[in-house]
Write a structure and sequence with these properties.
Blueprint: H1 8-23, E1 29-31, H2 36-44, E2 49-51, H3 61-69, H4 72-78
Parallel strand pairs: 1-2
């Protein structure tokens, strides 16, 4: 994920993995999303789920519940 916005080989590999997953009717979840550029890349390839530091650093269960309740996830994903 790290270099998909700047390295054509990395972008090709990630695109192929997304395509394979979609062709097998599997949900594809990107791991390690750290930048808005990576998120934009994934969206253009119809990978609509991901996790990583762009969304949040690791949280306790209690903090995670508060994070979800605060609507921060929806705001991040909408932009």
């Amino acid at each position: 994920m790290r270099d998909i916005a700047t390295d054509a080989d990395d972008a090709t590999i990630v695109s192929a993995v997304i395509g394979m997953g979609r062709n097998l009717n599997q949900r594809v979840i990107a791991e390690g999303v750290e930048t808005r550029e990576q998120l934009a890349f994934l969206r253009t390839r119809q990978c609509h789920e991901g996790q990583g530091f762009l969304f949040s650093h690791p949280l306790s269960a209690e903090d995670f519940a508060g994070f979800l309740a605060g609507g921060d996830v929806a705001a991040m994903c909408a932009s």
